[in-house]
Amino acid sequence: MEHFLINSTACLLILWLFYKLLLENTSWHKWKRYYLILSIVTALTIPFIVVKTVIIPLDHNPVIDFTNTQVFSEMVTEQEFQFNWTVIFWSCYGIGVLIMSWRFVKNLKTFRVQEEDEVRTYSKYQLVLRNVLTVPHSFYQSIFVSHTEYTNAQIPSTVLEHEKAHLDQKHSLDILFMEILLILLWFNPLFYIMKYSIKLNHEFLADQAVIQKGIDTVTYQETLLHYTQNSHSKGLANTFNFPIIKKRFHIMKTNTSQTSLILRTLILIPILTLLVISCGKEETEFQETEELLEIEEVVDDNHKTEIIEIYEVLENLTPEHIEEYNRLALKHKNYMNENNNLIVFKDETQHMQTIFHSMSKEQQSSNEPWPYLGRDNDLKAGQIPPPPPPAPSAIEYINEHKDELNYYLREDQIPADIAIKIINEVGQASVEISPDDNGVMSIKILETDNNKGTLPPPPPPVKSKSVSEKEFTEYNEWAKKNNEQNRAAKLNNNHRYAIIKQKDFEKYRSIYGRMSTSQKSEAQPLPTLPPPPPPAKDKKQISIKEVEEYNWLLNRHKEFLKNEKRIVVFKEDTNRMIQLYTSMSVEQQSKNQAWHYLYKENREKAAEILPPPPAQ
Question: One Pfam match, by short name (predicted)?
Fold first, then answer.
């Protein structure tokens, strides 16, 4: 489904752009009509054209998936509620189809002859005179006009000829075709664009038919402008008053040569070829492979044993297969170098092995070596490692790593002896062995439908006597950065101390307070808050521009505090504001509001993160 939607949309977009750029403004309206309809059919057909067949050897001996080579694995995955996105998708699609179907039927009903309508004949078509004021329009075999305007001879013959041209050329069939597509593919905006282009081209065709009957072009254009002032649209009808009057006037005067048509059509050929190649269907074909038997004799003191190893080989080895082998061999090699353990990928390892045994000895020696060789194992070229031993049970794992683990009942941490007691009582089916949020391997007793009534209530949480390694590392990085900046400011006497946010200071002060004695001995000291900026050496009056800068910073802080209702310190701006205020003369300070006034309602909090106010 995804392949069809994506590729059909891409094809339709390219074909529409070709029409918009090279065909829309030409005078070949009949050819354009067929092009627009066929481009839709083509875009919907190309994704089903098979352009490539991939042959996959039939899998006789599937490789066991043991991508996870760690000793532990999940015992039971907690059952969680999941949305059924397929049902939601099809429900939304179905609602859209119902709405578009209702719209389609509703529009069709508007073309039924009502009791109050008067029916006459125009040429071979039905002329329906309606009492309501309506712009002339047509559908299928009928032309609809206003009864009042028709009886008062206010509808020019050119208008009726225009609508007759729509019926003669059966434009309603194109519109019905598009409406059916819109019901099924209502979510695709390109079909609405294509419908608009088709209806606009219908107007070009009708305009052309009217002018070819000898009607003066200027008179006809004046009629168009007159009916533009009474505009309304019908979804299925061909209306005389279709938009883009300026474009229609321009097209009436256009006459494109036959040579230009041929050249533009030739450009379409490579475009269609590229669309088929890039958006066509890739088909998968499964094919049985031949078997290669390799016999190896192993002799000991008393017995002679014949070992038969069976490998799959490809029927036709291509350079693409050898390129694929080299890629897979490098992937296995790099992964094992980074993780320092053997790895087997479910499908890729078997495919790599099949290609390796399909190569000749010369090809094997001239390409990437077998990635498992030279890794402290007894494997030979072309062999893969056996599957890892089964993961131990929860009790076995606890016996081996009891003091290294954390223990949880539901979301609450519990002591080891309580966890072991619960596991012995309720069994190991609901036990998961995995890292906790702090990265420590943990035994997690999960609540399931089977044990919901047997699990005990959660005990009081265990208070950690030390912080996790992750918190310890995060604190050290933060403290080191701020301590270094404070030391540099003190050493250089430039007062460029670190600006510490209140929430960060409280967070890391809490982490430091929860550290054990040994952790504190290895941790960075808690950064001290910066001292107040030094008083100005003199009380020289600052410039008017600096006073304006100070007031701007002050108002910025006040506005932020008013909206956020919390203490805020801007890294550069706060220090600059304090510096400007302390540099003012006494007279300037008396005329401008003091910066520390901002925090008068929360002096205690402000004292934690800001230097004290300057002495008056």
Answer: Peptidase_M56
Nearest to 21 by CA among 271, 303, 340, 305: 271
Decide if 64 contacts 387 (C-beta within 8 A). yes
pLDDT in tens, 1-53: 777 888 899 999 999 999 999 988 888 888 999 999 999 999 999 988 887 76
Rounded to whole angstroms, the Cα distance separating 114 from 112 reads 6
Torsions phi, psi for 327 (to 5 deg): -65, -45
Mean pLDDT of the chain: 79
Token pair belonging to 124: 């071979």
Distance CA 346, CA 473 (A): 37
Q: Which helix (H) or strand (E) segment is 441 a member of?
A: strand 441-445
Question: CA-CA distance, 375 to 336, in Å (whole number)?
Answer: 9
Which residue has tokens 């929360």?
A: 602
Q: Which residues lie below 8 Å from residue 148, measured CB to CB, with a gap of 6+?
A: 131, 133, 154
Task: Please name which of 158, 200, 209 lies closest in space to residue 175, comparing C-alpha atoms.
Answer: 200
Residues 343-371 pLDDT 10s: 888 778 888 888 888 888 888 888 999 88
Q: Alpha-carbon distance 431 to 466, whole Å? A: 26
Q: What Rg do the C-alpha atoms of the chain give, in angstroms?
A: 41
Secondary structure (3-state) at 125: strand
Q: How far apart are CA 58 and CA 536, in angstroms?
A: 85
Q: Is the dihedral of CA 144, 147, 150, 154 positive or negative?
A: negative
Rounded CA separation 215/202 (Å): 19
Return the structure tokens found at 594: 């003091």
Opening angle at CA 307, ends 302 and 313, nearest 5: 165
Question: 399: which residues sit within 8 A by CB, 6+ positions away?
Answer: none
Instruction: Report which of 154, 320, 135 is spatially closest to residue 229, judged by C-alpha positions.
Output: 135
List C-alpha distances in Å: 263 to 29, 285, 320: 17, 41, 39
What b-and-e string marks burial along 118-141, b requiring 16 or more CB atoms within 10 Å of the CB? eeeebeebbbbbbeeebbbbbbbe
Between strands 304-313 and 50-57, the pairing is: unpaired
Pull the structure tokens for residue 238: 């061909």
The distance of Cα 270 from the centroid of its chain, to the nearest Å, equals 32
CA distance 162 to 138: 10
Name the H helices within 303-453.
319-339, 348-358, 361-366, 394-401, 416-426
End-to-end CA distance of the chain: 76
Sign of dihedral through CA atoms 212, 213, 215, 216? positive
| Burial of residue 71, with CB atoms counted within 10 A of its CB: 0-12 exposed, 13-18 middle, 19 or more buried | middle
pLDDT per residue as tens digits for the range 92-102: 989 999 999 99
Q: Are 221 and 251 in contact, with CB atoms under 8 Å apart?
A: no
Three-state secondary structure call for residue 513: helix
DSSP 427: -
Q: Where are the alpha helices (DSSP H) in 340-468?
A: 348-358, 361-366, 394-401, 416-426
Phi, psi of 286 (to 5 degrees): -90, 135
Beta carbons of 464 and 514 less than 8 angstroms apart: yes
Q: How far apart are CA 45 and CA 48, in angstroms?
A: 6
